[in-house]
Amino acid sequence: MKVLFSNLVLPKAKIVVIAISDALKLGAISAKLDEKTGGALKKAIKAGSFKGKKGEVLSVIAPTAVTQDIIILIGIGKEDDINDLVGQSVGGKITATLNGLKVKSAEIIVENTPEDKILAANIAYGVSLRSYDFNKYRTRQKKEDKPTLNEIGVLVKNSDKVKSQFATYEKICKGVFLTRDVVTEPSNELHPESYAQVIKKEFTGAGLSVKILNEKQLTKLGMGALLGVGQGSIRESHVVAIEYKGDKSDKTTPVAFVGKGVTFDTGGISIKPSAGMEEMKYDMGGSAVVVGLMKALAGRKAKVNAVGIVGLVENMPGHNAQRPGDVVKSMSGQTIEVLNTDAEGRLVLADILWYAQEKYKPKTVVNLATLTGAIVVALGSEYAGMFSNNDKLCDRLSSAAEKTDEKLWRFPLSDAYDKLIDSPIADMQNISSGRGAGSITAAQFLQRFIQKGTAWAHLDIAGVTWAKKDMDTCPKGATAFGVRLLDKFVADNYEK
């Protein structure tokens, strides 16, 4: 999507979109355009039920007196309620509307709002976020099914300042799109080996350093928990560390982001039902968020030092697959009785969380994973679950979540839950001894691999990684939930 900015002038495009609040008052340029139409816009507003509510659309066929074919009014709601999220939502609605009309290009007039610069940049951001389309493998896609919109012009006062603000959003958007891409890829194309190479290729020369650890190196490090998950697959497991040093004057340790990267999860010997198993290609969603976040941080040259660690494995029921009842030794030295091979993500995270702490000594660690079906039962697709040992960290994440509309809901951790994963023959077992609180006991398991003094949060994103219907700023499919949230979290709390 090409986004251009220019100062407020009468538009020349055939399709024009006008952002208007519920006050239904046209700005100076919009009013001039209305005059040229013989008052068609005001007449349409008066005659119809258009109230200027957020996302409300009114299309007006333009008279022959003007060069436009269609003028679209889009509501931005109450002026007092205008914020970043309103702009992004409206921008997404514009993209969906224009694609529905099979429009290739259009201009948007943004004026007469109390925060027109903020609104304009965020409308453009929303336009871009919603423009995502993954058609890599389609060879017979009908022309009418293809998105048509490829260029948007934004007419706004002080367009240079708005353009500068949007440039930051555009970098974040590229991180979001990278995450959506790798989550959408089929697992025969994106497996641990190829995924590692995708990361290396993506970040070579991009201001980041990438270190790929193979199975021999992982064995030497003692990552028996992670390696046990992947031993049934013909694909070699990998761990990838992505380092970003955006503030070389900062001598403190980096903030760490850790992601589960199970490129396909059959459940292993504890095999899943066949219905819906194809969705398990996105069981690497946590790792994808880490990868997209690192691209966003580097792209916008964030003044922060950060590291992203992803554990890439494939969980298959091969002849050498891990069995229920096996005991593995983690990198931390703790032993784990594997009662269910479909509770594999926590085994992967156990080792890479420990590796992140041993290697980089971070004071803050945030991990992400499509970890449990129980979180979907609890929260559906509206919120991700948050678990943490640190109230301040939770507050910071919750604040970023509200600002980006990638919402989090905190769950409890306690000794009572922790006892449920004690094993009679090993230090712990990978599932609890009961049926309840599955997401909590999974988090308790992870907490056993967090070292004293480390502020840690676990985000269970199983319900929010894939959308089964279109959303304001995301077409159905991979959402990249977490990239914008964590970028905001970094910007608000770790950049000078």
Provide an overview of this structure.
- There is one protein chain.
- With 496 residues, this protein is an alpha/beta fold.
- Helices cover 36% and strands 21% of the residues.
- It contains 15 helices and 19 strands.
- Strands 7-8-10-9-13-17-14-15 form an 8-stranded mixed sheet, with helices on both faces.
The profile of the biggest β sheet is:
8 strands, mixed
Q: Helical proportion?
A: 25-40%
Shape: elongated
Indicate the multimeric state: single chain
Instruction: Give the number of helices.
Output: 15
Radius of gyration: 25 Å
DSSP strand count: 19
Class inferred from helices and paired strands? alpha/beta
Tell me the fraction of residues in β-strands, as a range.
15-25%
End-to-end distance: 31 Å
Mean pLDDT: 96
Question: Which spans have pLDDT < 50 for at least 5 consecutive residues?
Answer: none
For the largest sheet, list the strands in their spatial order.
7-8-10-9-13-17-14-15
Question: Strands, helices and their partners?
Answer:
Layout: E1 2-6, E2 15-20, H1 28-36, H2 40-47, E3 57-61, E4 70-75, H3 84-100, E5 105-110, H4 116-130, E6 151-156, H5 159-184, H6 192-203, E7 208-213, H7 215-221, H8 224-230, E8 238-245, E9 255-265, H9 285-299, E10 305-315, E11 326-329, E12 335-338, H10 345-360, E13 364-369, H11 373-379, E14 384-388, H12 391-404, E15 408-410, H13 415-418, E16 428-429, H14 438-447, E17 455-460, E18 466-467, E19 477-478, H15 483-493
Parallel strand pairs: 1-6, 2-4, 2-5, 5-6, 9-10, 9-13, 12-16, 13-17, 14-15
Antiparallel strand pairs: 3-4, 7-8, 8-10, 11-12, 14-17, 18-19
